[in-house]
Amino acid sequence: MTEYMDELDAFSYREKIAAGAPVLIPAGSIEQHGRHMPLNVDVLLSRAMAGRTAKQIGAIVAPPIVYGYKSQQRSGGGNHLTGTTSLDAETVIAIAKALVLEFARHGAGKIGIINGHFENYQFLYEGVDLALRELRHGGTEDVTVMLLSYWDFVDDRTIDELYPDGFTGWDLEHGGVLETSLMLHLFPERVDMTQVDDVPPAELPNYDVLPVRPELTPASGCLSSGANASAEKGKLLLDRATSAMAGAIAAEFDLTDSGT
Amino acid sequence: MTEYMDELDAFSYREKIAAGAPVLIPAGSIEQHGRHMPLNVDVLLSRAMAGRTAKQIGAIVAPPIVYGYKSQQRSGGGNHLTGTTSLDAETVIAIAKALVLEFARHGAGKIGIINGHFENYQFLYEGVDLALRELRHGGTEDVTVMLLSYWDFVDDRTIDELYPDGFTGWDLEHGGVLETSLMLHLFPERVDMTQVDDVPPAELPNYDVLPVRPELTPASGCLSSGANASAEKGKLLLDRATSAMAGAIAAEFDLTDSGT
Amino acid sequence: MTEYMDELDAFSYREKIAAGAPVLIPAGSIEQHGRHMPLNVDVLLSRAMAGRTAKQIGAIVAPPIVYGYKSQQRSGGGNHLTGTTSLDAETVIAIAKALVLEFARHGAGKIGIINGHFENYQFLYEGVDLALRELRHGGTEDVTVMLLSYWDFVDDRTIDELYPDGFTGWDLEHGGVLETSLMLHLFPERVDMTQVDDVPPAELPNYDVLPVRPELTPASGCLSSGANASAEKGKLLLDRATSAMAGAIAAEFDLTDSGT
Amino acid sequence: MTEYMDELDAFSYREKIAAGAPVLIPAGSIEQHGRHMPLNVDVLLSRAMAGRTAKQIGAIVAPPIVYGYKSQQRSGGGNHLTGTTSLDAETVIAIAKALVLEFARHGAGKIGIINGHFENYQFLYEGVDLALRELRHGGTEDVTVMLLSYWDFVDDRTIDELYPDGFTGWDLEHGGVLETSLMLHLFPERVDMTQVDDVPPAELPNYDVLPVRPELTPASGCLSSGANASAEKGKLLLDRATSAMAGAIAAEFDLTDSGT
Amino acid sequence: MTEYMDELDAFSYREKIAAGAPVLIPAGSIEQHGRHMPLNVDVLLSRAMAGRTAKQIGAIVAPPIVYGYKSQQRSGGGNHLTGTTSLDAETVIAIAKALVLEFARHGAGKIGIINGHFENYQFLYEGVDLALRELRHGGTEDVTVMLLSYWDFVDDRTIDELYPDGFTGWDLEHGGVLETSLMLHLFPERVDMTQVDDVPPAELPNYDVLPVRPELTPASGCLSSGANASAEKGKLLLDRATSAMAGAIAAEFDLTDSGT
Amino acid sequence: MTEYMDELDAFSYREKIAAGAPVLIPAGSIEQHGRHMPLNVDVLLSRAMAGRTAKQIGAIVAPPIVYGYKSQQRSGGGNHLTGTTSLDAETVIAIAKALVLEFARHGAGKIGIINGHFENYQFLYEGVDLALRELRHGGTEDVTVMLLSYWDFVDDRTIDELYPDGFTGWDLEHGGVLETSLMLHLFPERVDMTQVDDVPPAELPNYDVLPVRPELTPASGCLSSGANASAEKGKLLLDRATSAMAGAIAAEFDLTDSGT
């Protein structure tokens, strides 16, 4: 049976929840990803990451958070770019809070958020914190929520394999090797490698300035080049990251038997 | 080229927007739809309706609003049901407002919201109103937004064809002939007709009571039977509704040439 | 003793509440109602409907919600019209929530909202839902709230009697036969029948467009003509609707003995 | 023609607004006022004060703000008392803001709020400030709002006449000579002088403590005795206060000719 | 050991809280105070008042609320003045609410807010009320909060000593004898008496008008003259007010042994 | 003249603003910092960093944001710890927004926020973004805001000098060498080196889990040891970071002449 909640009917979903399945919520964004990838990379990747992870631990994947927090220049090119379509912090917080409360109402006590858009993290965190505070006030103490950004589960060994010439940090990976490789492996029909703008990584200041100075973002909107991406690298990233996430979730939630 | 924004790269999207393409935003929900259909029927149908409509008028389909307002007992079975996963009004309002503001920032002056979940409507309306008020304060006067619920574009002739034994109203169509037929036509692999609970339409009071009395909702969660649904009816519904919506949008936005 | 809370002193009110009296809250609006009726028709009628209903079941009528949600073009002419004075959704929600919480604090476990302004409904619903959620978190489970729109209690037989030439739907009844007749019966001094603009019903699209196109609203602001209104029809409407509402409330709240 | 907006039809209202009439908004509350007066004293008095003032300067009286901010123990007995029915600060602020924005939209540039409930004041002030900030952002600079509490327009001479044995301050006047006299003059049928609890003024601390200590509020809920009230005193208060308010408003708004 | 929380390490703080120490929160503002005093007078004085009071009753002084509600013309000169830096009501409410909830989480059941900026009061009150409501919903009933404005603890005898020529009311004391004297006693290096603008008290109307008429505020921004201020008066004020506050808090919180 | 706004009188402040001085806002928190440092380390250090930076570029230092966002376990030990006193995200956002709007009202077009509490950053960013959006709607385009976290201005060379045995990342620097050294240099009387808990750095997972597992935070509350801290290191850190920040601000704001 599918691990994707949106493909399940309510009765099948209820059985899984009643059996104690964790719920994993992918959190994406609609954000420009250069000329070579579509606007919903973060939705596709967070959902796929959650799906592969869920398969390993018998979890359910909730429908994704499609629109996320504003793109920031130092991690996503900036929210001034046409195509990038974002929500205010308050709304991202409210969505995360509502989803935790709703899944808790369903009876899910083990919830994970699989983040695929850097800028979302703190707002998802706040939403979770508010939901748990409200649950606690209502006398519910047995809900636990994990927040994971999938790139944090790419270990140093993998980084060395993927970036033989040196790694410039996750912040500059917007539209670069990581995302492009994963897309090539998972959704090759959505990537046009002939359109990669193979230029050196962006040089961005160690602070933010608002309104952004648009000239600081490369013309492609990507902060580093995806030219060295490959489907093989994508498979490696997917395997390593989901395996590590599955391990962390199984340990934290004390899952005794895995899924598949 | 695809009409779906989430499959477009930002540069192609910018060209379409610059050429004056309207943007259509599907608004769905995650809501139980009986034993025979998945939880994301409203997302799938609003997105497909928007897609077919967009094709006829050269519009872009924005990524869908996946989570919607709470299911109400008289139109969706009620929000007490496990699987149904909803947002508070404030959040639905905020999402609609943010999307209008973001598409306006992109340069889109012609925006439509294609609603596929009855309960969303008033909150989408408020979000649009707030966005336009904010735009007006900022000096932007040239943004127009249409709000359409797709079933309102099913005309009386079609209703007579679809419901030869009499029509009980859109409010009871939750999980019934309309939605099941559309799903059979568009996503047959997601429907299991053997699981349709073929019982008479629910009898619900002419008021709301909260907390809901769960016994008023049929065991299936559907308010009427989908047993008489068929892919042919679905095709008819899709053709008639999208054709009517395309006509209304083209007229309202004064679109001189159509798409495709 | 009066059923109107605002005419009661606090001590008399406390006795009634302690005896288990339900509380009915009228929800109106300040909205243009043509040249022949005043701006507070919705306040007057919801309050009178609540009053007559309360008399039959021993309920208390709370002071009315005077200002309501924005007038929408398809049910009230639109909020662009001067005189119409409205609140944002968030505020209507907050008022409904606060009133439910306050009456619950007083000890009222049976609360009804008698809506007299179409556009209010979904926002009142959300306010009630939020209040009950907060009460539930605080451990209070014994508060029930009904939401009623008085026109939903006009049965088909009455409609046939009132509209011998055919009924065009409640949505077009803004300033028409229903409201004018009720005003003629209840507050004849506030109606000037010489000012009725006797034109055919408005023809409005099956969608909303914002900003509204003002030319779609008839010059009078009324969506149908009140020329066929009469005090007799008003009496019939009042009797039938309040009797039906009283029956529904008594049944839902299990009221064993009726009022005066 | 009446000065009360809620009795006007929209067309007559528009004429008055177009002629430059100021709009006065009464702000009341639903609050216990002892055994001898009804729960809506603050609504009745603020509305009557506004009405008499409006008559002198050709102003329009908006429908009242019926529900106000929470009663505080040192000025209204406290919000723990059954019957007192209040809104949170945020909602009072939102109502005041919305009304200023709506009347400004109508074209009213001269708006007054006539406050009749001590605890409302700061929240009305904030609502006005937020509305004017929003108007300013939108380019509207020609709206002016006055905030008046009617008791501030009772001068020292009148206080000496009304309280020959000494005045204990407006804060303790809740349910006392001021309000009871005004009610006796304006709405004698709503006062039952046999129910006045003629005890010395309450002795309340010079700070607030929450939760309130209920024993600090007198059993009647009134903070001073209304036994010395009379209709004559009420007439005097009404005349003096409305005359002073009319003078202040006419001067501030530079009204060259008065009304009626 | 210091009574100031911000100078304590967390472990020492925990011991004091565990021993039942009350927490006093100073509430100030950043507001112009004439040519002779700095912008943070209200922060300095509320913190010092809280400190002296805390010493007498073994309380802890929380870090101050630095930014407060908008300055109003009749009590602080108005928020149009450059230098005055204020928060909206909603934010002041949220801060007060959060602090009560946080100190309650720490285990503090006895909390006082020492207000030093007139305009803050009602918003602090609302924040406290909301916090206690949330605590009550969560099952916590043993938290009590006092709200004190320090000038309310200056008794009539002291006023007579300080203002031999007559007292014009606390509202006009902005930048006058009270604040200047306290500053001279506590922070003489922050006062420049040569810069006092010795003019008669401001004459302000008995209502508010927004936008403010700037000409109503004296050029200095002070509403009365501080020329008669002295360090001796400051010491007297400090001693009398803190002694009275300490007494009130000890009595209300039933503190059996006092501090240092 | 002092660079600290809270020590300036309003008239001197106005002169500086009129002369084009940038405003730097320190953002701290009240958070446990082990047994050896006080709860307001983040306030003290962000204010001192802002002060030294301001001196070099002729800027004004605004009063600090004293209470900040919740401490998170992976960067501050967690918000479950007694003593740590935090605000919700919404409130931090509102404070940052309000301050930008207020300083813009004063005429300041060059604003910097000097962050001293890791968890604040994204919420400060959102507040700035909302303020600039509101200013833009109001027609103000000439306000620029920089957001800086002071540790981002410690360069690699300095890190090598300070951590000869290897650097474990800023995230674990809570209560460690960085903060302790700065405190030893700036506020030696507030540090008690005998109380440093000299244990290895905390090992924290690469995700968040809520509610936090308290056992993951070391008993001291510090995430790494401050035992190797020294005043000399503090001076070095202060000099290097403020010099780099001054350079960045001067460049970004195009300041032609520096201060002092």
UniProtKB/TrEMBL annotation, chains A, B, C, D, E, F:
BP terms from Gene Ontology: creatine biosynthetic process; creatinine catabolic process; riboflavin biosynthetic process
Top EC group: hydrolase
Signal peptide start and end residues: none
The keyword Magnesium belongs to this UniProt entry's keyword annotation: no
Domain of life where this protein originates: Bacteria
PANTHER family: 2-AMINO-5-FORMYLAMINO-6-RIBOSYLAMINOPYRIMIDIN-4(3H)-ONE 5'-MONOPHOSPHATE DEFORMYLASE, 3-DEHYDRO-SCYLLO-INOSOSE HYDROLASE
Protein family membership: Belongs to the creatininase superfamily.
Protein name: Creatinine amidohydrolase
